[in-house]
Amino acid sequence: MMDDRSGNYRRGEDAVAEDMARRFLVGESRLRLSPLGAGLINETRLVETAAQRFVLQRINGAIFANANAIADNILRVQDWLCTHEHIDVRLPRLIPATSGEATLRDADGQAWRLLEYVDNSRVIKPLENLEQAAEVGRALGRFHAALAKLDPSHLALTLPELHDTPRYKASLDAVVSSTKVANLTESTETERTAGIGSQANAGARVRHPTRDGDAGQQAHHQTRLGDCILRQVDAEVTAALRQIEARAASIPLLQQAQADGVLASYVTHGDPKLDNVLFARNEDRALCLIDLDTVQPGLLHQDIADCLRSCCNRSVAARPNGSGIPSLSVDAPGHSSSSSIGPSPRGTTQRVSHGAQGEASVLFDLSICRALLSGYAEFAAPLFDRAAVALLYPAIRLIPLELAIRFLTDYLEGDRYFRVTSPRQNLDKTLIQLALVEDIETKHEAIEKIIHDCFA
Question: Which pTM value belongs to this model?
């Protein structure tokens, strides 16, 4: 239930949005605005006029400091696609105001833009069949191939730290080296030696006040229980840090390959997760990629690996009573549903602790991987020489590790970046991504064979 203050705030936000829509659509007498999508970065509304529909967005200035650079990148890509039509790629058009500006500012300096609304479209969450997976690959492959000859240096870096895995690792190291976290990990080692860190031990210390008749003693044991639950979480943090550190040698691999001239920079989407692919309403046909804020220079490998991470991560959570329920695959900064296509390969499921939530089984779906990469290669295989193909598996392994590093850093810093709904949500996401990395590693040979078959 919304209180008056919250209601007034929302009405104020709605009024600002309507005012911005009218500044873009001068002369439109009737406008209807409604919330659109479930994105966690930009504020998005559907704008309906008597004849058309549009997408109005307020760009999150805390994430994207240069909204004009985003608009410049999108317009440059649009112009390129209009004059180079050898590959048919559709993107939602950025619609300038009557003044010619692609970005307008409200009274508080917040940036707004207006985009084409793609009619008769839908977002599929999760994937329902392998043809949809192939279509996701084709959408990304067409995008990469169509823009392959556009000089990436002509585009600005709208999110400079995107996929800078060594930088993310350095940030995690800085947090871990702080006194607070150092003490946290030291206490974990102490309790591990003493054998007092398990939930079973914690539970054994709890005495019900009606049985003990001592409220003070009960309070004491509640405190001890709280400490032990915290230490159990700390043990998971320590284990996660060890898993990340064990893979530290792979972290600079893509950046080093780029520095050595093995991998070239291209125009990349930057966030090609399943949520950002629009399908035809009544067909298993991908229409276009959306969410173009992070279109900028980058590595094709990062786009491919992030797309596979989003689409191939199948997670099934187990309730405490043992019943299986679908779980969410984890994306940054939001979520996308996990897929459940066909039977799971036996003996390939990795399990990850979720504390009070029970356990989750995490696996990398090879059938989705094959379908998606096959669709991608139909258009983009010529962009990969033998050395680039050899780096595809390391990239597929690296991107979920990168995301685990980001989630864990945010967890240790007190959830400052990713929006969370529970105190340990970022830690749970960390464990899911690390379990996904482990499952990818167990399927190394199978993934390499799929890559070879698709890119040979």
Answer: 0.80
